[in-house]
């Protein structure tokens, strides 16, 4: 294969040396030209065949695992949860062996990684892998501890499965942190198959986590009804004993459970980008292209509004959780919850619309370079938004068909409509921003740096020297009573603390002046885009936190549930809600990308 590549390069150099008068010279008559063309065609066909085979392999693995999980849901006698765990453990072990082989064998071959995709695996995506991976490992630790305490009524497989999960999560996190940008040039087909099997394994782990969460909510709601009718009758259940360690394991497992689903989805997206980059050759200009870095500059109002939204949302969330866990939750907390969304969602929609208009006013060209990461971001944004949009439309139909004039129904109806608009406008803003070409004005940046130094120097003319000289004079002044050695030591220590405080104040003042100058130097379009992006980042964070940690008013208000029936609405919410949660988290990454390129 390497000889063919060399011949292709030789062919390109020969074709470049041929005279430009192509009207009299027919290139197709040259043997070397025909040979290079056939080699390139065979290479492209082999690449497409490898992608097709690995994709079909992953599709069959996903179908097999989905059949197991669905059979467990509909027929818990024939297919148990232990059978699903055995299948997922086998897939995890296979994926683990492939990752180890990739780390120890594939990348150590000569010319294995000649190119690295600068767009793949940005720092916030890899940071989320480490964060969610650490929480998932801690979740498995709590599961092991909980199963160990209840070992008398639980199988040993419930201890072995999380142990395998800890090894798999830690190894995969290391692999994605160091090699998510690789464009591997050797063992194409084997690498593609390994990546697709690992992606399918993460997808099945996510599907099991979603279905287990739904079953947990269903059992919890049924147990609440049983406790209200038959108080104290729990003899047939495997219940945590009244000990502190068991309660810690139980509460910790419930608290960290949402991070497992987010970790699996993030890993799926990164593995898919690696799969697209197998065998990809990146041009020298594209490979050395400098990526903009995140700097907290040019934003004032966005952080203030976003922080206010986060603080108010956290208060509303805590009020909601306290009321929702009680046996008789009041409708007042639902009114407050929906009112918070009705105020926040229009602000986010208006900000996204204004940002889209500014993108249209800018004279930036569209970035048409092939970028698998950007293409995947667009697909994930559009696909994940369908979860929330689907739930909102089902909720609108149910509320319009019941009693839309009721206060709570009216608020829920407005919430659903505004949620649809916010998802659509935010997707348009992010996708439009991702496709804008970032142009670095080196001369402008250099001029800004010189002006900044001049401004800081002008604002502090000799102030530092005069302050330090006065302090030194104060230190060198002899004390009133030389015989009191303790008082002299206290004066020196106080003077040293005063010097450090003044130096710290001067550094803060310099940083403030530098920040103000940088903010004033930006154009108004870049200012507005950065303000909007930062505000939307913080708003999406609080909208991710609230449903992730148990805030589910669409299921708990009872309006849609009474309209569609318990089972139907249960399926709609618990398959749409994880996608909505993933959409908020993925939007944060896209908005950060828009922020740094603004």
Please provide a written account of the structure.
The structure is a single chain. The radius of gyration is 30 Å and the shape is globular. It has 19 helices and 2 strands. The chain has 598 residues and is mostly helical. The protein has 2 domains: 50-229 and 237-283, no CATH class; 301-443 and 523-597, no CATH class. The protein has helices at 2-17, 31-74, 81-106, 123-149, 157-179, 188-229, 244-276, 284-287, 301-324, 331-361, 372-401, 407-434, 442-459, 463-476, 485-521, 524-548, 553-556, 559-564, 566-597; strands at residues 113-116, 182-184.
Give a quick rundown of the structure:
InterPro entries: Otopetrin (IPR004878). The protein has 598 residues and is mainly alpha-helical.
- The sequence of SSEs as H and E is HHHEHHEHHHHHHHHHHHHHH
How does the overall form come out from the CA principal axes? Answer: globular
Low-confidence runs:
1-22, 440-482
Q: How many DSSP H or I helices?
A: 19
Strand content: under 5%
Number of strands: 2
Radius of gyration: 30 Å
Strand line-up of the largest beta sheet = 1-2
Helix amount, in percent? over 70%
User: Which secondary-structure class do the elements indicate?
Assistant: mainly alpha
End-to-end separation in angstroms reads: 43 Å
Report mean pLDDT, rounded to a whole number: 76
How many domains, in number, for the residues? Answer: 2
- What does the largest sheet look like? 2 strands, antiparallel
Topology:
Elements: H1 2-17, H2 31-74, H3 81-106, E1 113-116, H4 123-149, H5 157-179, E2 182-184, H6 188-229, H7 244-276, H8 284-287, H9 301-324, H10 331-361, H11 372-401, H12 407-434, H13 442-459, H14 463-476, H15 485-521, H16 524-548, H17 553-556, H18 559-564, H19 566-597
Antiparallel strand pairs: 1-2
Helix pairs in contact: 1-2, 2-3, 2-6, 3-5, 3-6, 4-5, 4-7, 6-7, 6-19, 7-11, 9-10, 9-16, 10-12, 10-16, 11-12, 11-19, 12-19, 13-15, 14-15, 16-19
């Amino acid at each position: 294969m390497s000889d063919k590549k060399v011949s292709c390069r030789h062919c390109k150099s020969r074709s470049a040396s041929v005279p430009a008068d192509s009207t009299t010279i027919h290139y197709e008559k040259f043997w070397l030209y025909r040979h290079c063309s056939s080699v390139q065609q065979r290479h492209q066909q082999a690449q497409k065949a490898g992608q097709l085979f690995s994709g079909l392999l992953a599709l069959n693995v996903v179908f097999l695992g989905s059949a197991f999980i669905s059979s467990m849901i509909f027929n818990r006698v024939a297919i148990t949860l232990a059978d699903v765990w055995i299948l997922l453990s086998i897939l995890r072990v296979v994926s683990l062996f492939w990752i180890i082989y990739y780390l120890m064998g594939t990348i150590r071959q000569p010319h294995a990684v000649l190119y690295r995709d600068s767009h793949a695996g940005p720092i916030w995506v890899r940071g989320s892998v480490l964060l969610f991976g650490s929480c998932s490992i801690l979740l498995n630790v709590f599961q092991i501890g909980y199963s160990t305490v209840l070992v008398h009524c639980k199988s040993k497989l419930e201890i072995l499965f999380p142990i395998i999960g800890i090894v798999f999560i830690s190894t995969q996190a290391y692999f994605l942190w160091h090699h998510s940008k690789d464009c591997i040039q050797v063992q194409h087909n084997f690498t593609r198959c390994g990546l697709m099997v690992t992606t399918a394994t993460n997808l099945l782990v996510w599907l099991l986590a979603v279905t287990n969460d739904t079953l947990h909510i269903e059992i919890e709601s049924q147990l609440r009804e049983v406790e209200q009718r038959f108080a104290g009758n729990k003899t047939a259940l495997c219940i945590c004993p009244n000990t502190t360690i068991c309660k810690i394991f139980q509460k910790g497992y419930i608290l960290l459970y949402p991070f497992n689903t987010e970790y699996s989805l993030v890993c799926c997206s990164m593995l898919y980008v690696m799969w697209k980059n197998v065998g990809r050759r990146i041009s020298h200009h594209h490979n050395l292209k400098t990526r903009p870095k995140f700097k907290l500059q040019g934003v004032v109002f966005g952080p203030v509004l976003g922080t206010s939204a986060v603080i108010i949302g956290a208060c509303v969330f805590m009020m909601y959780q306290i009321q929702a866990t009680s046996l008789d939750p009041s409708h007042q907390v639902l009114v407050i919850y929906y009112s918070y969304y009705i105020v926040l969602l229009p602000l986010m929609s208006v900000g996204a619309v204004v940002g889209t208009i500014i993108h249209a006013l800018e004279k930036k060209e569209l970035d048409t370079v092939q970028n698998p990461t950007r293409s995947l971001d667009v697909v994930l944004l559009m696909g994940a938004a369908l979860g929330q949009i689907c739930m909102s439309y089902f909720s609108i139909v149910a509320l319009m068909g019941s009693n839309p004039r009721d206060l709570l129904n009216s608020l829920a109806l407005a919430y659903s409509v505004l949620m649809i608009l916010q998802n659509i406008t935010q997707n348009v803003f992010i996708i439009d921003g991702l496709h804008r070409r970032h142009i670095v004005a080196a001369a402008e940046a250099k001029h800004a740096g010189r002006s900044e130094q001049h401004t800081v120097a002008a604002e502090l003319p000799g102030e530092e020297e005069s302050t330090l000289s006065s302090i030194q004079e104060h230190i060198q002044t002899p004390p009133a009573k030389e015989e009191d050695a303790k008082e002299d030591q206290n004066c020196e220590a106080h003077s040293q603390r005063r010097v450090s405080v003044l130096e710290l104040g001067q550094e803060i003042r310099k940083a403030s002046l530098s920040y103000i100058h940088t903010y004033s130097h930006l154009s108004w379009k870049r200012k507005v885009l950065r303000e909007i992006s930062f505000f939307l980042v913080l708003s999406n964070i609080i909208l991710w936190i609230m449903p992730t940690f148990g805030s589910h008013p669409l299921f708990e208000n009872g309006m849609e549930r009474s309209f569609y029936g318990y089972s139907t609405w249960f399926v709609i919410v618990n398959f749409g809600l994880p996608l909505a949660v993933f959409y908020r988290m993925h939007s944060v990454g896209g908005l950060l990308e828009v922020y740094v390129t603004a």
